[in-house]
Amino acid sequence: MTRRLLWASLDDERPNREFHWLSLMPDTRVTVAGGPPPSGDVDWIERSYRRPVKRFKEAVALAWMKDMRSVPANFDWIASLELCSMITAQASTWARDNGVRQCVVIWANDPELIFYRLPPYRQALDKARRADLFLNFVRSGYDHCLALGLPEERCAWVLPGVDTALFHPAAAPQVDPVITFASGLWPKKGLSLVLDAFDLVRATVPEARLQIVGSGPDQSVAQAAQERTGGAVRWLGPMRPDQIAAVLRDSAVFTTAPWAQRRWNEQYGLAYLEAMASGLPVVTTISGTNHEAVGPPNIRVPHDAEALAEGLVRFLTNEGLRGDVGRLNRMTVVRDHDMLTQSARMAAVFRTSELQPRR
After folding, report:
1. What is the pLDDT of residues 224-261, one digit of tens each?
2. 3.40.640.10, 3.40.50.300, 3.40.50.2000, 3.40.50.10470: which CATH number matches 3-161+338-354?
3. Which of 10, 56, 219, 304 has its CA 20 to 30 A from that of 356?
């Protein structure tokens, strides 16, 4: 029988991620409630949101889905993102009222997250504790669920998936010293530090180039760097996944520089996986639990421009090392992160949960 799963979307959820992976589970049909019209083979129930405060984004946004109670209850599961989100709180109530199983999808990796202690997020967490399944995409997320006192038998851990057919190495590797930064252009992603490091890189590798992909508040920083460097830095703007894949195949090294803040640290980093699937080595800063995605012989350094530049120069000046690390990265992603394989593993987790009595 086909599993019918309702995905309750956040107001500003990044598109085609978690619900897309769930839609690829065998024998599963996904319907997305809310958000913009989704792409892919899913159904859509249009809903708008009430959002009195715009300060926070994504899972901690103070945003509620309008008229969620009227969503038809012809589903086996309802799923949503993160334990403390307002949408998860609504999903918990909807699941209880309609006798539907609930799954909470989790990236959070810190049981001391301040929002877990603040209303109304604390109340959302309390409601979510009744869920049937807590599906984590990072091992540290699984550990943090146990630290929060969630029952181990309802917690699971499956690594996130990447389209390894779309993100693949170039037919011939890039021999020029081209660095790519692909991320949301938010200060927490560290573009300013990358630019400082790039200035140091050019002292040793004057022909180096830096490509910046993404959009956000730091767009002006990227544009100013492009002007200042005469084009050695290029801001390419936001791109579709296929365009990002092409840029990565034209690169020699991938970099970002996330830095931990009170309300956020790097949890994993799908951009790392896309770069690794494309056969690139990664140089990044130590943040949160990004070591789960970026292991040796890739390079993680403190949040320091000189250390970041040293790592970049190491790969830019050693084509053989770049090739060795890139091949290892590709093999690792194909083994552990192929999208269809990981979605099948998610389906196995759901099947195990479905054998348990409904809560």
Report:
1. 999 999 999 999 999 999 999 999 999 999 999 998 76
2. 3.40.50.2000
3. 10
